[in-house]
Amino acid sequence: MGNGKGKNKGKGRGKKRSRSLKENKVAAKVEIKPEDKIEDKIEIKGKHHCLRKRPTHAPTSRCLRLGHVVQCPIHPNSFPRRLSDATGAQGQKEVEQQLISFFWSFKVDRACQRTLLDICLLLLWLCYVGLYILASYYSTEERFIFLSIPDFGEKLHIEQYKGYRRHSVCAHNNHPMWKNTKPRHLAFRAHHRHVITCLQFDADKIIVGSDNTHINVYDTKTGALRAKLEGHEGGVWALEYHDNTLVSASTDRTIRVWDIAKAKCTHVFQGHTSTVRCMKILLPVQIDQHERPQIISGSRDSTMRIWKLPQPGDSEYFPPTESVEECPYLIRVLTGHQHSVRAIAAYGDTVVSGSYDCTVRVWKISTGESLHCLQGHTFKVYNVCLDHERNRCISGSMDSTVKIWSLDTGALLYNLEGHSSLVGLLDLKEDLLVSASADSTLRVWNPANGHCQSTLGSHTGAITCFQHDGQKIISGSDASLKMWDTRTGVFERDLLTDLSGTWQVQFDTQHCVAAAQRGDVSYIEVSTHPTDIPSIYNLLFMKILDFGASPETIPSGQFGKRVLVDELGNEIESPK
């Protein structure tokens, strides 16, 4: 692929396109070199868009034929070609409605309809925001579009388009990902019969803490137990890692720092006089003043402590006494709360804490100053989160409300009502706030104005865990793990059922990891898809993610099977 200087070979249509490019002052033209054969492109599993600025003009040079699910061609000329008049939310809605009415006129496999529509809307939206695709190839089987990267000196990276959320950059495969797709469902026992209190994972490892005294490190791919980190004398209530450094907080009133690769404790921080209930690793950002990562801990002793995160190569530190004044890693102690510090959230030089004293406090980390004491909740505060882009914080309480506060003035901006019991979990991502309650429901809110967009109500017990990414929500309750469409509030399906408890859940674009109890035994359940799926393919992700529950909409043969393994990663019973 190169920057061609010859005439467009598309005759009249090519000339018209060239004139359009000239009129819009777009210099780049694309031609297919002999060496850029389609057959060569098919050998590549996935190709990314390369996007460049262009005024609103939808490409119509090729016919979009989805041969495996559509029995007749869909030509881009059928789509709305000019979107310059479709400005604002109303204009976008009209374009989407026009496309939807057009799209459903074709005979499309129902299991694929929503995914295909999502892809088509994505392509239209790229034109709408002023971006276009420089070139596209199609497989010889006419199965999928190849959106390739021409070799221009200036390349645009995915990071530059994060602001467009799902309407940014995507990858296609020449074989449909919902066909012949069997995500692997791996399961292994963890911490015997203990409650799993905290979990973090990546593609390499899963680190799990429980209400016993140790932390387990598992291999994400095999489920094998890599290491058992021992040293705490009480339950582990919080853990977080950065690179090779793990930090854990316990009911034994200490914070421990571990070298993950060596499975070794390197530092012990003492000073809290009661359970360390919450803890965060705070990484430096541009607006921040500190130069190295910090640890922020909150305790039932009503205080918070700021520590320096030990760096690789630092000397080990094991204090002989509980005299924290001599600890070289302690920066300062934050005092002001009158009861347990239950939750903390931090960004830059700001930390927000929620307490059982019914208040939320805003602190300046670099000085330890309490900037605001936010009063309004009538019962214990269980969770807080920061909306640093709007300079706000959000709190959830046992009084069943969610409150949005101004960090500038400390004023209450919105009081979000609707839950009927404790709001213990909050998550803010992609301009959507999700709250989870002991009333068995989740609610999706617009954090800009406090409006409730949807209520998710298929659980039968208190919500114990959830995560969302702006597109989908995965939530756990007493007997099941469920998946929802965040945008519509529609329940998609059960991922795990027949559980006696669900403790934790986390997911990324390739894995979903849940900590659950079956009978009286705790398990880690891992669903892994072999291909990394960009978050823009939310509907595709939701169709293929599988823990073994069989929805009516998808043939059971396309689902993976649960494989139970022992501590060595060896299968110990037949798949179910």
Describe the structure.
Among the domains are: 2-173, no CATH class; 181-229 and 425-576, Neuraminidase (6 Propeller), CATH 2.120.10. Helix 3 (88-103) runs antiparallel to helix 4 (110-128) and helix 4 (110-128) packs antiparallel against helix 5 (538-544). The two termini are 49 Å apart. With 576 residues, it is mainly β. The model is unreliable at 1-89, 102-111, 121-181, 533-544 and 548-558 (pLDDT under 50).
End-to-end C-alpha gap: 49 Å
Give the CA-based shape. globular
- Radius of gyration (CA) equals 26 Å
Mean of residue pLDDT values: 73
Question: At the third CATH level, what is the topology name of the domain at 181-229 and 425-576?
Answer: Neuraminidase
In DSSP terms (H or I, runs of 4 or more residues), the helix count works out at 5
What is the helix content?
A: 10-25%
Concise structural overview:
It comes from Penicillium rubens (strain ATCC 28089 / DSM 1075 / NRRL 1951 / Wisconsin 54-1255) (Penicillium chrysogenum). The chain is mostly beta strands and 576 residues long.
